[in-house]
Design goal:
The complex is a heterodimer of chains A (about 375) and B (about 280). Chain A has about 375 residues and is α+β, with helices and mostly antiparallel strands. Chain A contains 8 helices and 24 strands. Chain B is about 80% helix and about 0% strand. Chain B contains 13 helices and no strands. The chains are: A alpha+beta (about 375), B mainly alpha (about 280).
């Protein structure tokens, strides 16, 4: 049960907005669509809301075709990034709109509408502002009015398009927590679009990472952060950095070392990418199996120490991040030579189109045992 | 006026020489305005009243003049609502839909601005005149287009076509479709969206467009001249009546012209009042 999106395809002239997008959302789930601008997330949202139609594919809700219903009858609540409140109506009139415009047979009585509006405004903590006009509200208040207005029609699916995009940082953080709690108390299936990694990882039950109209990975926030399935997700979510790598004769060469590698038999593999995350490089006292790195610069930000390092065999500096405590008071300054250990590297085998077909995360120093590329797990389904 | 606005918006305290420059610019602008706009208006009213109030009232009260007033009002009363509906429909279509021929429609809406009104009138004669493409057929059905009210209305509609549409398209395109989409997902029908969401946001622009459209409809000369036939008391609108009187009775011509001038002043006044009253509300709140 829930929303079942299968093989959606959408093109605009020459550009592909959605490329074979499939996703299932369980009832009551809070799902984030995360991706850079132009990745297709808003296109997907508009199709779900009924404001656009896909070229191919299907969307079902509890087994019922959703695409045959037009936006008016779909029962989907949509909250726009810029709120899209009706400027000539008061807060209460905005919230009541979805109830007032119903055909008169289904329209609640005026007193019932009034009661429902009051209840909704109480829920979003704005009951004292019901007579104001949108122009007289702050951004965060407008966003909550938009939310109340969308909820008034008792939608079975709530869509939020960059709900915090136009707010300043402090309001954003407060509203994030508020919305998460709100969702918990409401239990309505919610899909929200964002380009902000923190927002998606902090709020969502599950995160769907999109890029170039394709879904790169679906998973829980921890899953996506710990095991990015593609180089894109690694870069975008985990700040993964590409390291030059060479593979020949069953040997992977990188960082001035060589490791045996297996599982390359898959003839689809056309290229190999090797990624490292900032927290996977850390300083060590033992320089037997580590690397000698040169510190280029050190920035200390709120308990975190960010360091740019030059490692052997890598021309571009790599970013490392530690917390102050891990450093054990070790002084560190630009120009220092330090020993570092690498906790984890991820190798991706990609096909000619750049899609990952195999991947493996490994800890480098166990030199003898070969790294074997496993088949790539992209979706749970 | 433009000069003061510029000086204020730059926001620098004018130095001595800047003050002098400002004074020169303002007086130059005022001089041009006075010479081109105020002076003619004054001349019209002084000429109209040169032979006294009773002559003035007589000139206006003549049967032919009153008929011209009536005809002008009738033509405007038909042409302006037609263009109001057309303008709304065109603006709605242009803003909310993508369709083949959209660019062509946009160009066509501007066409009356670029075509000489005389040519527009000639075109109507070619189509509806006695020897025109449709003229014979229409006349056989007992309808007279050219040298009659339908022709005057058609000519006026053509000439004033862009006023409402242009005013609305600019505003509606700037506003985008987001509010309409929001209303749609909330379950509103197309009509509801139009009446409760779109119209309230464009009403002042719409009113302004109608005002301009009306001023032009009543003042149109060229296109109407060609299709009218100049039958005093029958097919002479106010501007045509002024023209005809001008050949015969100088002062009477100015008396009737003063009516048109009054209309202009009224339109201007209304527009100013609107801007003052709803200056902040023209783009919503």
């Amino acid at each position: 049960m829930g929303i079942e999106i299968s093989h959606l395809q959408r093109r605009f002239h020459q550009s592909i907005a959605l490329d074979d997008v499939s996703l299932s959302i369980a009832d009551g789930e809070f799902v984030a669509l995360l991706g850079p601008s132009g990745s297709g997330k808003t296109s997907l949202l508009r199709i779900l809301a009924g404001l656009d139609l896909p070229d191919a594919g299907s969307v079902e809700r509890d087994g019922e075709d959703l695409l045959v219903l037009d936006a008016r009858r779909r029962g989907v609540g949509l909250v726009f990034q810029h709120y899209a409140l009706f400027p000539h109506m008061t807060v209460a009139q905005n919230v009541a709109f979805g109830l007032r415009v119903r055909p008169w047979r289904q329209r609640p009585r005026a007193s019932a509408i009034k009661q429902r509006v009051e209840e909704l405004l109480r829920r979003v903590e704005l009951e004292h502002l019901s007579a104001r006009y949108p122009a007289q509200l702050s951004g965060g208040q407008r966003q909550r009015v938009a939310l109340a207005r969308a909820l008034a029609i008792q939608p079975r699916l709530l869509l939020l398009d960059e709900p915090f995009g136009a707010l300043d940082a402090q309001v954003r953080v407060t509203l994030r927590r508020w919305l998460r709690e709100f969702h918990r108390s409401l239990g309505i299936t919610t899909l929200f679009v964002t380009h902000d990694q923190d927002e998606a990882l902090e709020m969502a039950d599950r995160v769907v990472v999109m890029n170039d109209g394709r879904i790169e990975q679906i998973g829980t926030p921890q899953d996506i952060h710990r095991h990015p399935a593609t180089p894109f997700v690694s870069r975008f979510i985990a700040r993964g950095q590409a390291i030059p790598v060479e593979v020949a004769n069953g040997t992977l060469r990188a960082l001035g070392r060589a490791w045996p590698i297996g599982g390359l038999a898959d003839e689809r593999i056309a290229s190999i990418a090797l990624h490292i995350r900032p927290q996977d490089i850390f300083p060590t006292q033992f320089h037997r199996e580590g690397w000698q790195a040169r510190v280029l610069n050190v920035r200390r930000v709120a308990g975190a120490v960010r360091v740019s390092l030059l490692l052997p065999g890598v021309e571009e500096p790599l970013e490392a991040e530690w917390n102050e405590r891990e450093l054990l008071g070790q002084a560190m300054a630009a120009g220092d030579a330090i020993d570092v250990q690498i906790q984890s590297l991820t190798v991706y085998g990609c096909d000619a189109q750049g899609r990952v077909v195999a991947s493996k995360a490994f800890q480098p120093p166990q030199g003898a045992s070969p790294i074997t590329l496993g088949s790539w797990r992209r979706l749970e389904a | 006026m433009a000069a003061t606005a510029a000086a204020v918006s730059i926001g620098v305290r004018p130095s001595r020489s800047a003050g002098a420059v400002r004074a020169v610019l303002i007086s130059a602008a005022l001089l041009v305005l006075a010479w081109l706009l105020v002076l003619p208006l004054v001349v019209i009213f002084t000429e109209a009243l040169r032979q006294g109030w009773s002559f003035y009232l007589d000139a206006i009260g003549q049967a032919d003049s009153l008929a011209a007033v009536r005809l002008t009002l009738t033509v405007a009363a038909i042409a302006v609502p037609l263009n109001l509906v057309f303008g709304l429909a065109a603006a709605w279509a242009m803003t909310h839909f993508a369709f083949p021929g959209k660019a062509l429609l946009s160009a066509l809406i501007d066409l009356p601005f670029s075509v000489s009104p005389v040519v527009a009138g000639m075109m109507l004669i070619l189509v509806f005149g006695q020897d025109g493409w449709l003229g014979g057929w229409i006349q056989s059905h007992g309808v007279q287009v050219i040298f009659a009210l339908p022709g005057l209305v058609l000519a006026t509609v053509f000439v004033t076509l862009p006023f409402v549409a242009r005013e609305l398209i600019a505003l509606m395109q700037a506003q985008g479709s987001e509010l309409e989409e929001a209303a749609l997902t909330l379950g509103a029908s197309g009509w509801r969206i139009f009446w409760h969401v779109t119209l309230p946001r464009v009403r002042w622009a719409l009113f302004y467009g109608v005002l301009l459209c009306n001023a032009r409809a009543m003042g149109e000369f060229g296109a109407v001249y060609v299709v009218s036939g100049h039958l005093p008391g029958l097919t002479n609108t106010l501007p045509l009546q002024v023209d005809q009187l001008y050949q015969e009775n100088f002062s009477a011509a100015f008396a009737v012209a003063s009516l048109l001038a009054l209309l202009t002043l009224l339109t201007l006044g209304l527009k100013r009042w609107l801007e003052w009253r709803h200056g902040g509300a023209r783009n919503g709140h």
